[in-house]
Amino acid sequence: MNRALSIRSSNRSSGTATSSTHSSTGGSHHGSTMTGGRRGFSLSSLRGTIQPELSKRLFKLIKSENNLVAAHETAGRERVSIATQLSEWGEQSGDDGISDVSDKVGVILSEMGEQEDNYAHALDDSRAVLKTIRNTEKSVQPSRDGRAKIADDIARLKAKEPESTRLVVLEQELVRAEAENMVAEAQLTNITRQKLKEAYTAEFLATIERADKQLILARHGLRLLALLDDTPVVPGDVSPHYPHAAQARQILNDAEDDLRDWRMAADGPDDGGDAAATPTSPKASIPPQQQPLSPKSDRGSLSGGQTVG
Amino acid sequence: MNRALSIRSSNRSSGTATSSTHSSTGGSHHGSTMTGGRRGFSLSSLRGTIQPELSKRLFKLIKSENNLVAAHETAGRERVSIATQLSEWGEQSGDDGISDVSDKVGVILSEMGEQEDNYAHALDDSRAVLKTIRNTEKSVQPSRDGRAKIADDIARLKAKEPESTRLVVLEQELVRAEAENMVAEAQLTNITRQKLKEAYTAEFLATIERADKQLILARHGLRLLALLDDTPVVPGDVSPHYPHAAQARQILNDAEDDLRDWRMAADGPDDGGDAAATPTSPKASIPPQQQPLSPKSDRGSLSGGQTVG
Lowest CB count within 10 Å: A73, A207, B165, B261, which one? Predict the structure, then answer.
């Protein structure tokens, strides 16, 4: 098995930040050298986006996150559409078993689609948090540039006119710029750490919520399908007996109860091996026969609890 | 809470298949009346697709499933791309903690993307199963049409020439057509029940597998993020100490082990309330310090076990 404990293209030189050969992920391949706190700007950094160098990568990443959100939104929408189509296809079959099971499986699939949509929205919220980092990166760039420019000016002047009196002024300016930049870099570090943690913690929690809830739905979906007898019928007996309508409704009730009772497991971050949500006990709920169908709702809304405890 | 135990637009009249007012899910709204085994064909059934009436709905549903597959494929691809971008963004930060955590979170996200892609492929396989039903529907249509046509001819002839000798021949033809159709309908019922069950059982199992594995990954991802100290630093101390590199590698090892040990829970279909996969015990694995980074692999492949027990 191919172990990959890093997904970087280049072997990272840990410790100091003297990287230079990381492959670009699309767009311009700039040759920034971060030696001694100064940055060289290649021509290629002027091409492409108008983003400052520092926030370019995150700018692209946030765009990719947008594509990800859109993909999950589409998946949710298609899932809900398939659910309705499946139910209506089953209805025209004229087979009680297929009609009932396809309708109830449709309810489950529809709710799976809703969960996919919720996931997309959670990813979008996390994306907004990444923007805070990007905006800070953008605002720190002028500070870095200013400091680098003064250092460049000093180096150029030293080479041309080593005795120039302007050097003293420039050295003073550099000290001020370094102080200003030091604050900016600390702000960047703080925002980056806090918001990186916040954004991806939110994504992982959303992943857990979607996984838990879709697990609940898929397991009840399997129970529904198990009600459909698929032993072959002989010609003339085209509409086999289907005695499971009440059971099928009970399964939907169970699914609804399980979703409502779902809570985020409190031990999430520290307990990596246990994939279980709060285990739910069997419900002693009202017999479902009394429940009227809801013909007005055009898609299933087994709206489960959204609580994150 | 709005209970929806059916997702059909119309209130289904259970038992007999005399539905008439189901709303169309896009496309032509045909007014087929399924009374007494005969079908009226409206003009609108000639518009749109060239699919026979019977397989039209499933034809559309299979198209929607294709959109669903594509959406999850896109989500998987974007996720893997984001993983690489995050890792490379973190590298240029010059902050050891951000660099290491973003790289390892990237590995986790990349594997989540792989699981999303596996899910898309499983959905595509299930879609192929639905095609078997559609193809049978298509092949049963001429049998239904033939029988209906003879019955129509008889009715027409009886009205025009009640004494016609052709009536006897037509009645005989009708009996033969009914016998042939009876076999065709039984075949359709059998294929539909078997394949409906097979297709959506596969979808639900794939949903469970993706959910279980993404749960494992998300939980270990949260552990990684917890290693990142986000207490604010003061200006001048821009590269806070990061002592957790070994721990971070161990978390990736744990994730890899958990994925490899994953098995489909055998009690799936009958145990709706328990959202847990086989619980995995804490691993006593080899210290990760000996593991070299794999710079050649350009995306993480924590390839977990695919076994379905």
Answer: B165
Which CB contacts under 8 angstroms, 24+ apart, belong to A241-248? Answer: A242/A95, A242/A96, A242/A97, A242/A100, A244/A97, A244/A100, A245/A96, A245/A100, A245/B14, A246/A287, A246/A288, A246/A289, A248/A100, A248/A101, A248/A104, A248/A224
pLDDT digit string, tens, across residues B269-281: 444 333 333 333 3
Closest-CA distance, A218 to chain B, in angstroms, reads: 5
pLDDT tens for A231-258 read 998 887 756 678 999 999 999 999 999 9
Name chain A contacts of B271, Cβ cutoff 8 Å.
Answer: 219
* B-interface mutation test, from A1, A28, A39, A89, most B Cβ less than 10 A away: A89
Least CB–CB distance from A269: residue in B200, B223, B297: B223
Closest to A88 (Cβ–Cβ): which among B8, B106, B112?
Answer: B8
Judge: B277–A280 Cβ closer than 8 Å, yes or no.
no
**CATH code of domain A49-229+243-269:** 1.20.1270.60
Which CATH code is given to the segment(s) B53-229+244-263?
1.20.1270.60
- Find the CB nearest B226 among A107, A252, A269: A269
**What is the pTM (predicted TM-score) of this model?**
0.74
Q: Is B279 on the interface with A (CB under 8 A)?
A: yes
- The pLDDT, as a whole number, for residue A267 is 54
**What interface predicted TM-score (ipTM) does this complex get?**
0.74
Spans of all domains in chain B: 53-229+244-263
Helices (H) and strands (E) in chain A, counts: 4, 0
Q: Searching chain A, which residue's CA lies closest to the CA of residue B246?
A: A5
